[in-house]
């Protein structure tokens, strides 16, 4: 493999070619995800996950093919990420709050029963999505937070552990020592080169710099062959957040929504934007009114951008924060869209896993 052609490039090109062929389109490797997502005559099985996550989406598809529940399939996919200490956006190894404590948010929604469960600001439990599923299945509630959520997890036998890995602690410490010149924390005289990524480069706005690594989240949506939907969103939330800050991920309608008659949607990125706009609910409603999943994601991004505060926009009025939506419809279409085109998502249609790039309100620079 040449230096300039990575495995991911090959995957993406292969994915687009496969999608184009399946849809009867010309084999153009620049074909958009929208083309690859041309309507299918039947529904699932179908699964979509944020990011380039082929192993995870394949796990979900294996469960769907074996006749599994769509929510269980989605949860098992994100559980792989929650357990991965190298991923600093969820679960074990997630980046902590400003005090150096990892606080996790997650929600699940099950189409056939229209039930939901969620946990917020949960500490010491690596699989918040599984706890959220138990809130849904084993309580009369939808959302448990903080110490109550931890006690509930303990009652169900979840092991407690320190989620702040050494690597995540070093990233947090680097942030703590560098984010302000107006306190008593000092970086080492000779900082290790790898830690410099968390330092705000001269001239880059605080918002841009934070966006680069702070709102990581995983969303997975699944559709069975018989048309049942399920979804999950899980995150360590905004890194270095004020302790107790809860984002959109555990809020049904904001970071996740499933309507078994229409479709499902979820999000990664700036949670506050989705809390203010009920974004996942809105996207599903737009699909219900006839939009394709990608059109619905773009329409909601347009709304959010148009309602954003001035301080979150650049000189041209374009949002400086990151926000990505993912959606599937009951009839087996899918789409993803971002403020700026490009963030990856992975889809499995029962035949093959494909890593694709999100559409965008704005093209890639
Ligand atoms: N979307 C993740 C968060 O804002 O917490």
Overall description:
The chain has an eight-stranded mixed β-sheet with strand order 4-3-2-6-5-1-11-12. The chain has a five-stranded mixed β-sheet with strand order 7-8-9-10-13. The protein has one domain (38-164, 209-362): (Glycosyl)asparaginase (Glutamine Phosphoribosylpyrophosphate, subunit 1, domain 1, 4-Layer Sandwich), CATH 3.60.20. Strand 9 (323-329) and strand 10 (334-340) form a beta hairpin. It contains eleven helices and 13 strands. Residues 1-41 and 193-209 have low confidence and may be disordered. Helix 3 (54-65) runs antiparallel to helix 4, helix 4 packs antiparallel against helix 5 (128-138) and helix 10 (279-288) packs across helix 11. It starts with 6 loop residues before the first helix and ends with a strand. By secondary structure, the chain is of the alpha+beta class. 32% of the residues lie in helices and 21% in strands. The structure holds glycine. Glycine (GLY) is lined by residues 215, 217, 235, 237-238, 247-249, 255, 268-271.
Structural class: alpha+beta
| Element string (H = helix, E = strand) | HHEHHEEHEHHHEEEEHHHEEEEE
For the sheet with most strands, the description reads: 8 strands, mixed
* Known CATH architecture: 4-Layer Sandwich
Q: So how many helices? A: 11
Number of DSSP-assigned strands: 13
The CATH H-level homologous superfamily: (Glycosyl)asparaginase
pLDDT below 50 for ≥5 consecutive residues: which ranges? 1-41, 193-209
CATH C-level category? Alpha Beta
Q: Helix content range of the residues, please?
A: 25-40%
Overall 3D shape: globular
- CA-atom Rg in angstroms: 20 Å
């Amino acid at each position: 493999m040449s230096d300039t052609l990575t495995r991911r490039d090959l995957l993406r090109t292969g994915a687009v070619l496969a999608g184009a062929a399946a849809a009867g389109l010309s084999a153009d490797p620049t074909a958009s995800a929208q083309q690859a997502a041309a309507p299918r005559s039947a529904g699932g099985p179908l699964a979509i996950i944020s990011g380039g996550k082929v192993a995870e989406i394949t796990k979900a598809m294996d469960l769907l093919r074996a006749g599994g529940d769509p929510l269980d399939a989605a949860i098992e996919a994100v559980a792989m990420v929650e357990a991965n200490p190298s991923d600093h956006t969820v679960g074990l190894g997630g980046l902590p709050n400003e005090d150096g404590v990892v606080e996790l948010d997650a929600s699940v929604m099950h189409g056939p029963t229209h039930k939901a469960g969620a946990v917020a600001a949960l500490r010491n439990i690596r699989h918040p999505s599984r706890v959220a599923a138990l809130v849904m299945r084993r309580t009369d509630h939808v959302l448990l937070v903080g110490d109550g959520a931890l006690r509930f997890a303990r009652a169900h036998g979840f092991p407690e552990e320190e989620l702040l890995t050494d690597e995540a602690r070093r990233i947090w410490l680097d942030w703590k020592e560098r984010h302000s010149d107006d306190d008593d924390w000092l970086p080492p005289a000779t900082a290790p080169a790898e830690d410099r990524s968390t330092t705000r480069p001269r001239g880059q706005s605080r918002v841009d710099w934070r966006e680069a690594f702070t709102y990581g989240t995983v969303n997975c949506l699944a559709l069975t062959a018989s048309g049942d939907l399920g979804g999950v969103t899980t995150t360590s939330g905004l890194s270095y957040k004020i302790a107790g800050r809860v984002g959109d991920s555990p809020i049904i309608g904001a970071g996740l929504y499933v309507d078994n008659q229409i479709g499902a949607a979820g999000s990664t990125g700036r949670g506050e934007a989705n809390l203010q706009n009920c974004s996942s609910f809105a996207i599903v409603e737009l699909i219900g009114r006839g939009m394709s999943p990608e059109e619905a994601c773009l329409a909601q991004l347009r709304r959010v951008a148009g309602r954003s505060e001035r301080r979150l926009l650049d000189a041209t009025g374009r949002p400086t924060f990151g926000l990505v939506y993912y959606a599937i419809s009951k009839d087996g279409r899918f789409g993803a869209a971002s403020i700026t085109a490009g963030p990856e998502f992975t889809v499995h249609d029962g035949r093959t896993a494909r890593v694709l790039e999100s559409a965008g309100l704005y093209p890639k620079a």
